[in-house]
Amino acid sequence: MIYKIYPLLVFLLLSFGKDSKNTTELKKVTSKSIAKVAKLTVDAKIETVYHALKPNNFSLPELRTFTEALKGFYLLKEKGIVQKDILTLIDFSLSSNVKRLWVIDMSTNTILFQSLVAHGRNTGEEFASVFSNSNSSFKSSLGFYATGEIYQGKHGASLRLDGLEKGVNDNARERGVVVHGANYVSESFIRNNKRLGRSQGCPALPVELNYEIIQTIKDKSCLYIYHPSRGFSMEEKLIS
Q: What is the tens place of the pLDDT at every residue in 173-191?
């Protein structure tokens, strides 16, 4: 996996420093050098993975969005917080009228699903723009999640989510933010209303795809909701 290159980079840089006359200076810049080289190497590896994706007749997510999602996926796998080689990516920079959810099998680099997905009613109209981690906000929350268990709710089969970022989405389970199917997530709703329907903060799916998708992503897979309004250091934000 990509995250395994870090120890090698540390070893190479420190080994080089043993025979150098500028060992002291090298030590001062070692951490910065490691970070820079590691970032370049990881980005290059991720770009290789991206171009090797098997679209399976679906369109690809944006490289920038995929890169951020995959970095978090590898980190969470390393920590053991997520266990399945399934990555669900939701791009809330896109119009709700387009299919902005992807489910990707990272063991085979294959896109399994691409789907419409709703955002919260107070997050925006056609476009998502305002996010919250608060109860009763009826807003979506960004960031990384681990999928939980399936249960039967008012929308039928639903999938619980555990937010993994402190202060960003860690109230998801308490808020009842889950993956579920809804009739307002459909092409017919878009035709009649000029935009997709909205949820109370849940990433709601088309009814006809809901069961198959949640069966695929349940039980400790990685789900990531992206929006360009927020940047963060995953090592600092992710719950360990």
A: 999 999 999 999 999 999 9
